[in-house]
Design goal:
heterodimer; A: about 300 residues; alpha/beta; 2-enoyl-CoA Hydratase, Chain A, domain 1; seven-stranded mixed sheet; two-stranded parallel ribbon; 11 helices; 9 strands; about 40% helix; globular; B: about 100 residues; alpha+beta; five-stranded mixed sheet; 2 helices; about 30% strand
């Protein structure tokens, strides 16, 4: 038994790279990478578009220890092609999740993704489907799959669908979680529907605080690697398994939520309905005060 | 895309025992540098794939300066470049050597 080496690295999750996040997340020095950059498993598609590749195709996978327990870890690099899923990128995550099921080891996914890489969209979409299936199959084998969201690219498109299948989600204020990104909504529905340049609107519609308040995420943490580490350790202790009863309860919860908030025009109205005293102050609240104000948030416990 | 290769004689051998190191990411104005111990101890090879065509002379100057100043002997360096400026390239190369020379935990 290896002694646990606590990790007390202080680091902004939002600013950090995928490799820095992993190093700060797991027990100090415990990470061992699979299919590292030296193997040069690069995208077979990007060169066709005359685009530069990255040796790890924008995702780092491997094994580390969290508070002494062995876990499998995947971290997307949001700065390389917006952390988007391509063929190799997706295959690495699928393989890791299938290994998790076989080895009965929990998985932590560090999301930082705009969705599917448009240059290899078919392969990317297939990868999303394979990953979602692999997450569910791992969970049915009583493996916990925990998602961490707090990166620059947020967690959008196919990334958000995968996040929706996870056992637990941990999010920071900077983390954004949504199927369609701000620009996509504006392009398709018009600027009257959604002004993607209105940052306050983007954050109060897709940001971590709102997602936590409406039960879209299970834990809300400071933009700090240590906070993500502690929340991940706690989340891995959560209830295991995934069955029809859990999915039916989740479906009911979403129906109730839609009934309660479906007619609402803006997030602030939702926060008001939740009974938050000064809903317009929510974006400015520091973490501690926010968590106290969020006491009556929408329940996320039936979820997942 | 343009591919460039250099094989330079290096006055100083890279220290440390790590077999590889990687720094940076491929993004606009940024690059990743993968360092491996593969060349003979008095040689440094550098392979570059860059998104910016036509800057061979600038790369030549930057990598020669790097090999002359830093301990790059015995390294095989591979670069994926997203159009980084020469100062960023020099910085990443220096970070890379420092990282491969770090003591192992």
């Amino acid at each position: 038994m290896t002694a646990v080496t606590a990790n007390d690295v202080s680091l902004s999750w939002y600013e950090a790279s995928a490799r820095q996040r992993i190093d700060a997340l797991v027990d100090a020095g415990s990470f061992c990478e699979f299919i590292g950059p030296e193997l040069r498993e690069i995208s077979p598609h990007l060169s066709i578009f005359d685009l530069p590749a990255q040796f790890d195709d924008g995702i780092v996978i491997g094994r580390g220890r969290l508070d002494g327990a062995s876990v499998l870890v995947a971290a997307q690099e949001g700065r390389f092609m917006g952390g988007a899923f391509g063929e190799v990128h997706g295959a690495k995550l699928t393989g890791l999740l299938r290994a998790a099921r076989t080895l009965k080891q929990d998985v932590v996914i560090l999301f930082d993704s705009g969705g599917v890489r448009l240059q290899e969209a078919n392969a990317g979409e297939l990868a999303i489907a394979e990953i979602m299936r692999a997450v569910i199959e791992a969970r049915r084998a009583r493996v916990n799959v925990v998602g961490l969201i707090g990166g620059r690219a947020g967690c959008y498109g196919g990334g958000s669908l995968i996040a929706g299948t996870c056992s637990r989600l941990i999010i920071s204020e900077q983390g954004r979680l949504s199927v369609s990104g701000p620009e996509v909504i504006e392009t398709n529905k018009g600027i009257e529907e959604f002004d993607s340049r209105d940052r306050a609107l983007v954050w109060r519609t897709m940001g971590g605080k709102h997602r936590y308040l409406i039960g879209g995420a299970d834990a809300f943490v400071e933009d700090e690697a240590l906070a993500f580490r502690q929340a991940a350790i706690a989340a891995l202790g959560a209830k295991r398994g995934c069955n029809a009863a859990a999915l039916e309860a989740e479906q009911k919860r979403l129906e109730r939520r839609l009934q309660r908030f479906g007619e609402v025009e803006d997030a602030i109205e939702i926060w008001q309905t939740l009974g938050i005293d000064d809903p317009t102050d929510v974006p400015a609240l520091p973490t501690g005060a926010f968590l106290r104000a969020a006491n009556d948030r929408e329940n996320a416990d039936d979820a997942r | 895309m343009e591919k460039l290769s250099f094989r330079l004689s290096a006055p100083k051998r890279a220290g440390g025992t790590r077999t590889q190191a990687i720094v940076g990411v491929v993004a606009s104005g940024n690059l990743e540098v993968l360092l491996e111990r593969a060349s003979p101890a008095d040689t440094c090879t550098i392979d570059i794939a860059t998104a910016a065509n036509g800057f061979g002379a600038v790369w030549d100057a930057v990598v020669r300066d790097f090999v002359a100043r830093r301990s790059a002997g015995g390294l095989r360096i591979s670069i994926n470049d997203g159009g980084a400026r020469p100062d960023t390239v020099a910085l990443r190369l220096a970070q890379g050597v420092r990282k491969i020379e770090e003591p192992e935990r």
